[in-house]
Prior knowledge:
Blueprint: H1 10-21, E1 26-27, H2 28-34, H3 39-49, E2 64-68, E3 71-75, H4 88-105, H5 110-123, H6 138-150, E4 152-158, E5 167-179, E6 182-189, E7 194-199, E8 203-212, E9 233-239, E10 252-257, E11 264-270, H7 273-282, E12 287-291, H8 293-313
Antiparallel strand pairs: 1-3, 2-3, 4-5, 4-8, 5-6, 6-7, 9-11, 9-12, 10-11
Helix pairs in contact: 2-3, 4-5, 7-8
Amino acid sequence: MSAARPRPDVARMLTLVPWLLERPGARVDEIAEVFATDPATIRAELEHLDYCGLPGLGGGALFDVTVIDDVVTVRMADELRYPLRPSPQEALRLLLIGVAAERVAGADVPALRSALGKLHDALGVTPGAVTVLDAEPDDAVRTLRAAIAEGVRVRFTYRGRTDTTPSGRRVEPWAVELHEGAWYLHGHDVDAGEARIFRIDRAADLEPTAERATSVAPDRLDRPAYAPTDDDLAATLTLTPGAHWLLDALTADDVAPHDDEGTVRVRLRTAAPEWVARLVLMTGGGATVVQPPELRERVRSLAQEALDRLGEASPQPTRPQGGRS
């Protein structure tokens, strides 16, 4: 029996074409590394691209994709050389991600600060007018990044999803990663004697030690993976066609048609209802929480907080001096 073919990722394929047009001669393994997938998936998606093109899809209208000795060349796709224009929601998401990243690493990455300035100008948004309501664990992330740079161990109290009580951990930190709305620490658990991934917002009393780290980080780190359990919050959402992108961010138990307009009903379990609530807000009304009521109320509360912040940040009209009211 032949192995199942990797499922193509349309969003990645759309990004892949302009990326390859700017880098003729890129190799399959290089492309896979940049796009965080495996060479087999890239090969499958390149085959799909060979059947894509302009409307009509006849001779001369299809993309020309060739792979010779793992070297990839794309022709007949100049229409995709121009950057894709983001929707207002996508642009706002990009700006919020950049603001959050600047708060953690802005001082160490001047290019990020410069890019954010250009993004503010392009969107016509005054710097400081857009912010993140609840701060990520910035201090913990900065402490961990400093410990990684200095090569020392850290200690903290941690309660994992399956732990009944918190316990002390000694860890040799390798890297911090922002994944699906949460910060994670990759490192070597000294007492367990093996590599572990810790969710940083579950770590308390985090502090560096004077002990030198002796472990060596692997060349490739595993991505944080969420496996739903029966103890997690069960939720039901409806997604309009414009919010179907949410399916790529969630681990759904079931997706079923909801109406004839393309809306789907999604059932899922989550250990991070706050993150799901924020994802729902990011759809701009495209997602609706059906159940449970407490998640629906949290979405409403977050939306109200955002409106209140917007009102506080908006300049108040001034009354002209010396004129009649």
